[in-house]
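Quick start: read one record
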Amino acid sequence: MGCLGNVIWFLCGGLWQGLAWTISGIFWRITIIGIPIGRQCFKFTALTFFPFGKEIQYGGNAISTLANLVWLIISGIPLAITACINGILLCCTIIGIPFGMQCFKIAKLALMPFGATVMKSDRRD
C-alpha cells in the first residue's frame, strides 16, 4: 500500500511540496551561514516526495531549537501554510484523507525540522 500511496501522492501534491522544499534548500545554500539549513532541507525533500511508510521522530538540543527559530521565521511558516492548505483541500474528500494527513505531517516538520529524524514505519497497512 505504501508504494501505491507514494505514487498517487507524488502526482497529487507531493511533487509541488517537494519542489518547494528543494527551492528553499537552494536559497539557503546560497549563503555560507545557511549551508547546514539547506542540507537539512534536502534531507527532508525525499520525505516530502514519498512520505508513505515513513515516520518522523522529533528530538534535539539547544542548537536545534535555535536553528528551528531562525528556520521558522524565514522558511518554516510559508512551507507549513502551503502544506496545511494542501492538506485541507485533500481532506475534503474521503479518498483524499490519507493524503491530507501526510500533508499535516509535513506541515509539522516544516515548523520544526532540526532535531527531527526520518525513520521507516514498522506498521503494516
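The CA atoms of residues 6 and 50 lie 5 Å apart.
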